[in-house]
Design goal:
olfaction, cell membrane, single chain, globular, olfactory receptor activity, mainly alpha, receptor, 12 helices, transmembrane
């Protein structure tokens, strides 16, 4: 082993991987990445602004939408400095403490987004299957309880494995697979007993992401059963249209996270470019697409944005 490699292994500095073999194109790649982050920040801030300032949007479903936008905004903030730093050639290095902190936010915000999508599915279930009791079930106090539960679950459940990352010896070359830090990526570099982290992380994924997905699916089974019982075809379509935005948000979130998990578990033989691409889709696609989806498909937000932009012009 060379002296430089030994020094890298013994240090607490980790090196990000951008797009292996394509380093000369980073100035070009930085343009679309910068535009994507601009959409993430501007789009989600605009959704938050519209929900806050428009009295007609002060309803449970839009409170959950505001929490979703806030989650996506923080996801962008937690990764922008490493992703664009790598693309712009500013720095490809990160210290262990900063890497562990970023890992905490990336995974914690993913669990939070899953919880918010589940809460939004519950909102649609009540609105369609039990509309007469909608306001009595989804009271302000209950909405606050849901939000606090989602925040607590996502922020505390991952602490045991995140804290352990700080104390692992990392004796393999400190080359990360992405331009941001992930729990499974750091485990790959650790030379210690990682069984607790592996089993706990798997149990956490099953008890949060998988369970949330199953509950969302069950809620839509009941929704579909209720909608099909409606006699009028026009009313059936109207009821289903209220779910389109949420269904798109669910697909936008779960498809990349499943893809990234499959690549990490079974795609070790694949090109590093596939890992990098899936990682960037995982952190950027949902935060970018959610404000677009809700701006296009939600009539109240769309009309409020049109009115706001006409006044600005």
């Amino acid at each position: 082993m060379s002296a430089s490699s030994a020094s890298n292994i013994n240090s607490s500095i980790f090196i990000f991987t951008g797009f292996p073999g394509l380093e000369q194109y980073y100035p070009w790649f930085s343009v679309p990445f910068s535009l994507i982050y601009a959409v993430v920040f501007l789009g989600n801030c605009l959704v938050l602004h519209v929900v806050h300032t428009e009295p007609s949007l002060h309803k449970p479903v839009f409170y959950f939408l505001a929490m979703l936008a806030l989650t996506d905004l923080f996801m962008g903030l937690s990764t922008v400095y490493t992703v664009l730093g790598t693309m712009w050639g500013l720095s490809q290095e990160i210290g262990l403490d900063a890497c562990v902190s970023q890992t905490y936010f990336v995974h914690g915000l993913s669990f939070m987004e899953s919880g918010v999508l589940l809460a939004m599915a519950f909102d649609r279930f009540i609105a369609i299957c039990n509309p007469l009791r909608y306001t009595s079930i989804l009271t302000n106090s209950r909405i606050i309880y849901f939000m606090v539960t989602i925040l607590t679950r996502s922020s505390l459940s991952i602490l045991p494995v995140i804290i352990r990352l700080k104390f692992f010896p990392y004796c393999r070359p400190h080359i990360l697979s992405h331009s941001f830090c992930l729990h499974q990526d750091l485990l790959r570099l650790a030379c210690s007993d990682i069984r607790f982290n592996s089993f706990y992380a798997l149990a956490l994924v099953v008890c949060t992401l998988l369970l949330d997905a199953v509950l969302i699916l069950i809620s839509y089974v009941f929704i579909l059963h209720t909608v099909l019982a409606i006699a009028s075809r026009k009313e059936r379509l109207k009821a289903l249209e209220t779910c389109v935005s949420h269904l798109c948000a669910v697909l936008v979130f779960y498809i990349p996270i499943i893809g990234l998990t499959m690549v990490h578990r079974f795609g070790k033989h694949l090109s590093p470019l596939v890992h990098v691409l899936m990682g960037n889709i995982y952190i950027l696609f949902p935060p970018m697409m959610n404000p677009i989806i809700y701006s296009v498909k939600t009539q109240q937000i769309r009309s409020r944005m049109k009115k706001w932009f006409s006044l600005k012009m």
